Amino acid sequence: MTDERSKRRILSGMRPTGRLHLGNYMGALYNWVRLQHEYECYFFIADIHALTTDYAAPGDLKQKSLEVMLDFLGAGLDPELCVLFKQSDVPAHSELNTLFGMITPISWLERVPTYKDQQEQLREKDLATFGFLGYPLLQAADILLYKPDFVPVGADQVSHIELTREVARRFNQLYESAVTPEVAAAKSDKELMKAEISEDVLEYQLLPEPKALLTPSPKLSGLDGRKMSKSYGNTIGLTEAPEDVRKKLKTMVTDPARVRRTDPGDPDVCPVGDLHKVFSTPETLAKVYDGCRTATIGCIECKGWCADSILREVEPITARRAGFAAQPDVVREILAAGAAKANAFANATMRDVKNAIGL
Ligand code: TRP
Ligand code: SF4
User: Which architecture characterizes domain 239-320 according to CATH?
Assistant: First the structure.
């Protein structure tokens, strides 16, 4: 077995929201970049998923997906280390989704907490659709096609991974017995075929159940103090111009107790303090705590340090992104190569799945 294949596999996806903001970055991409050295990685842009909520006004999804791919590459995802692709370039996602629809009780989908939550939060959209209810099934298909060991996600996605596991279990129960050990063996390494009774054959699972890999997603406050979110319009972009980052920070709300410069404040109740905790060094953070609580620094100074800390993290990303943005052919090739690898893997899974069902 080659080194590559002995690595455990992870898969994760992100919706094409257009350019990412710092919250998107810290919540996912930052972790992915670190995971790529340890795992065999599949990362994709969930462009079909975007339609589950935005079908009425999808905007330019091609462009938005490209922006996200540039942010992936800028952040340091390396196409030599990860398979990077777009969901709609791999038809098997939709195909497996259809098959999962046959075996999944509607009640399982209605029970997923994000279903009602999102409907309530996005009241302006009509989300009483088949596709929106089925969102977690499409996600299950995204995942199970690649038989990953782990799915790195934030806490908000855990219920979707749980459903994915339930769907895999039900699917295996229904169809696995149709797979003879011979067939199972043929799907594994040649080496295993030679083995008398390989443990891997006995343990063969048509669709192995993956586990969630809970990645840290620190609370990132937006400019108005609410959670940083595109829908609140309170974001700082991942690759925004330095002068814009500084300008935005100047408008950011602070601890309301600091009305005058001489009033002490508390970084623990200040949204700027939250950003410091994520981006600043321990030394800077210590200066912030001390200076704020003793009113020996002003908020303007504190925000300047905060901007410095953010820019130190994101400036290399902005530069790398610009490099890729200047070479659209290279990006197109990366996407095409990613799609080819993803299709090869996904189609192999679909062959097993169809065989098992008897299609
Ligand atoms: N639902 C995820 C989100 O909103 C995106 C996503 C789609 C995903 N398919 C996935 C994440 C598969 C992990 C694995 O963030
Ligand atoms: Fe917030 Fe910094 Fe002002 Fe304290 S000094 S209130 S942490 S901006």
Answer: Orthogonal Bundle (1.10)
- Given a contact cutoff of 8 angstroms between Cβ atoms, the answer to whether 221 and 228 are in contact is yes
Task: Please write the tens of the pLDDT for every residue from 127-153.
Answer: 899 999 999 999 999 999 999 999 999
- CATH topology for 9-220+328-357 is Rossmann fold (3.40.50)
- Per-residue pLDDT at 204: 77
Which residues of the chain are modeled with pLDDT < 70?
Answer: 1-5, 178-203
**Could you tell me if residue 358 is left (phi over 0), alpha (psi between -120 and 50 degrees) or otherwise beta?**
left
CA distance 134 to 137: 5
Cα-to-centroid distance, 319 and ligand 1 (Å): 27
Q: Whose CA is nearest to atom 3 of ligand 2?
A: 299
pTM of the model: 0.91
Q: How far, in Å, CA of 265 to CA of 275, rounded?
A: 16
All CATH 1.10.240.10 domain ranges of the chain, comma separated, are: 239-320
Distance from Cα 226 to the centre of ligand 2, integer Å: 16
Where do the CATH 3.40.50.620 domains begin and end in the chain?
A: 9-220+328-357
